[in-house]
Design goal:
Blueprint: H1 2-16, H2 27-36, H3 40-43, H4 63-77, H5 89-95, H6 100-112
Helix pairs in contact: 2-6, 4-5, 4-6
The structure holds heme C.
Residues 34, 37-39, 41-43, 55-56, 58, 66, 69-70, 86, 88, 90-91, 94, 98, 106 line the site of heme C.
Length: 121
């Protein structure tokens, strides 16, 4: 019985140190996707000098916020009425082309850019 408890404790300890692999974001791929999908045509190549003042600044924004926003536009495209869905004709069309990996990479790259939005960089 003692052995069984020790064995269980050892397994528990081992599991504690198992590193859950987190998909690494690829900043270069994020920049490439931003260019490939013509995001810069509205948001600007630096993602903060947009063609219209009403278009949001993306550079320096938190990556998780940006990813959340992009996913919310995708949810909105399904006609979802859930709270976490955004409905915007332009962005709905834009995110339709993006894979989840594209969105994660783009969000990470945008967050890495210098901007007044950043708290400290
Ligand atoms: C035709 C112009 C246009 C293009 C092209 C465009 N966007 Fe946008 N984007 C907008 C507008 C306008 C908004 C604000 C929409 C709203 O009010 O929800 C916006 C909003 C966003 C937001 C939300 C920002 C926030 O602060 O909540 C993100 C993120 C974003 N765009 C990323 C992208 C990416 C990535 C691409 C390329 C795949 C892209 N945009 C292409 C015009 C554009």
């Amino acid at each position: 019985m003692k052995f069984k408890q020790n064995a269980l404790a050892a397994v528990g300890l081992a599991l504690t140190f198992v590193v859950v692999p987190v998909a690494a974001q690829d900043l270069a791929a994020g920049q490439a996707a931003f260019e490939k999908f013509a995001c810069a045509s509205c948001h600007g190549a630096d993602a903060k000098t947009s063609v219209m003042p009403s278009y949001p600044i993306l550079a320096g924004q938190h990556a998780d916020y940006l990813l959340h926003a992009l996913r919310a536009y995708q949810r909105g495209a399904t006609g979802s009425t859930q709270v976490n869905a955004r409905s915007n004709a332009v962005m709905t069309a834009m995110v339709a082309q993006l894979s989840d990996a594209d969105m994660r990479n783009i969000a990470a790259w945008l967050a890495s850019l210098p901007s007044d939005l950043a708290i400290s960089k």
